[in-house]
């Protein structure tokens, strides 16, 4: 998980997570696990990931499983980057 720290920091910064929330692991639940993560947060996080990594995410590429855990989100980014 080469981009774990980048994705974690983007998620935390975008959602304004502080303190213990910053200790997320790859198994940490995002959807349903972070109260701040709602439908608007999905759009904001995806936009931040697109800008940071220079990727484009199409609507049909996104599913609930992408945001199941921090690890699944990192894997999604890695697939988009061709890693």
TrEMBL record:
It holds the Pfam family PP-binding. It comes from the Bacteria. Gene3D superfamilies: ACP-like. Residues 1-81 form the Carrier domain. Transmembrane segments: none annotated. SUPFAM superfamilies: ACP-like (SSF47336). This is Acyl carrier protein. It comes from Noviherbaspirillum denitrificans.
């Amino acid at each position: 998980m080469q981009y774990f720290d980048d994705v974690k920091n983007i998620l935390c910064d975008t959602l304004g997570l502080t303190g213990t929330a910053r200790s997320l692991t790859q198994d940490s639940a995002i959807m349903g696990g972070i109260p701040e993560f709602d439908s608007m947060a999905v759009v904001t996080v995806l936009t931040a990931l697109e800008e940071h990594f220079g990727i484009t995410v199409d609507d049909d590429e996104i599913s609930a499983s992408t945001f199941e855990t921090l690890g699944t989100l990192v894997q999604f980014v890695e697939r988009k980057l061709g890693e």
